[in-house]
Recover the amino acids of this structure.
């Protein structure tokens, strides 16, 4: 081997090593906006501001999708592990916003009409006048679905994700196969609406419309059938799934209501946790009606003789 | 108003307690949240059902008659998480049970705590704790 050949070989090896090093450096400093690269955690205030920057839930969803180049579809091998049985992280009073002060009002910026309605509901409840629309055994419906304190499972597949709340066997199906919502003329109100989504790395981004009017929870505001939501679901540690949620509802909200919901994986080492079929009407002792005053009362009990209401002995 | 004929076997206390409202289905506004009632008796039946369970307890009155009281709690999965199983309250089980009584005087209450004759305590609200 001549000296010139040796020099050429050393130069080629050096060039290859330098190219490899350069490639590694580029991968490590990829721009944060590119899909899959870690982004700095946004604060709640930044998320609130992000909601304000978009007039509708659909606009926000579209902007999130554009950022990921129309969203990703995950193969089975890339799906996140959301297995296990979860429940909502405890929230005093089951408030929609976990950050609501224990003795304070809901954090939503309501329109005057809906603010007044909410205050009346809270005042009535203090006087024992309270009626929950789900007393008829109807499902809570979304976005109230987010607040219920029972067992949950999250089933992730490439084309659909199922968000399951055991209460009244309530399943939200999130379609991630690229489909769109129904044409506007064909939309009709649904308890849990119509949800489509895409993946941004290991985060599931969801848009939901076609919802029914309802209440966020007892002693919480009303929402209308114009309500729409954008959610970003992700696992933030081994035991916690987090959902960042923006609610848009122009008749009721002066601006989008952003909340950060958490669901905690329950310890099931003894394998005792089960989600069973939930028949809301299986026990007639649970049947209630709304009184003339608007309060809630049992219809009567099977264990009292002759519908005994005064504790008379038999 | 609960009739005084029960008083030898039943105690009523007025106190302020922080309780988690019964939530699955209906408002808990029909119960006196600021009061509790305690009775002693034997289990007649445990309805382990959704959205609420009912523990029915036969309570002997002063005149020898028996009144069946119902104590409402959450459904099966929440009771399971609280460590309350159907076998814990088989018919005939002796217990002392406390609840928030009905405002209208019906022999029913929202279950707060039950203590069996063997001393074991059962609090349905434990089922909402994350463990």
């Amino acid at each position: 081997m001549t000296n010139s050949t040796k020099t050429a070989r050393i130069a080629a090896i050096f060039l290859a090593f330098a190219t490899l090093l350069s490639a590694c450096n580029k991968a490590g400093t990829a721009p944060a906006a590119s899909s899959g690269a870690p982004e700095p955690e946004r604060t709640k205030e930044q998320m609130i501001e992000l909601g304000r920057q978009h007039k509708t839930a659909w606009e926000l969803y579209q902007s999130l999708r554009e950022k990921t180049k129309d969203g990703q579809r995950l193969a089975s091998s890339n799906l996140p592990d959301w297995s296990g049985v979860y429940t909502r992280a405890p929230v005093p009073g089951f408030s929609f916003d976990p950050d609501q002060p224990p003795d304070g009002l809901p954090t939503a910026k309501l329109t005057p009409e809906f603010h007044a309605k909410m205050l009346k509901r809270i005042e009535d409840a203090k006087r024992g006048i309270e009626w929950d629309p789900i007393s008829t055994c109807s499902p809570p419906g979304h976005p109230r679905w987010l607040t219920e304190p029972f067992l949950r499972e999250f089933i992730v597949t490439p084309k659909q994700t199922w968000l399951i709340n055991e209460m009244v066997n309530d399943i939200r199906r999130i379609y991630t196969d690229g489909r769109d919502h129904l044409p506007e003329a064909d939309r009709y109100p649904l308890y849990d609406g119509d949800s489509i989504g895409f993946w941004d790395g290991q985060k599931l981004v969801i848009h939901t419309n076609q919802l029914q009017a309802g209440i966020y929870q007892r002693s919480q505001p009303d929402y209308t059938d114009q309500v729409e939501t954008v959610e970003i679901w992700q696992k933030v540690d081994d035991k916690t799934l987090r959902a960042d949620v923006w609610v848009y509802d122009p008749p009721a909200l002066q601006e989008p209501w952003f909340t950060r919901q958490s669901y905690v994986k329950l310890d099931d080492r003894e394998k005792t946790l089960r989600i069973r079929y939930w028949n809301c009407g299986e026990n007639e002792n649970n049947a209630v009606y709304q009184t003339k005053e608007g309060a809630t009362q049992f219809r009567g009990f099977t264990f009292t003789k002759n519908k005994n209401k005064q504790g008379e002995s038999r | 108003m609960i009739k005084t004929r029960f008083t030898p076997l039943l105690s009523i206390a007025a106190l302020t307690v922080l309780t988690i409202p019964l939530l699955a289905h209906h408002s808990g506004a029909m119960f006196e949240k600021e009061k509790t009632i305690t009775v002693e008796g034997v289990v007649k039946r445990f309805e382990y059902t959704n959205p609420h369970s009912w523990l029915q307890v036969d309570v002997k009155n002063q005149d020898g008659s028996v009144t069946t009281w119902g104590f409402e709690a959450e459904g099966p999965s929440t009771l399971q998480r609280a460590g309350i199983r159907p076998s814990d309250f088989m018919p005939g089980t002796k217990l002392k049970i406390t609840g928030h009584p009905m405002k209208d005087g019906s022999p029913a209450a929202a279950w707060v705590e039950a203590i069996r004759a063997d001393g074991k305590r059962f609090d349905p609200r434990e089922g909402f704790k994350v463990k």
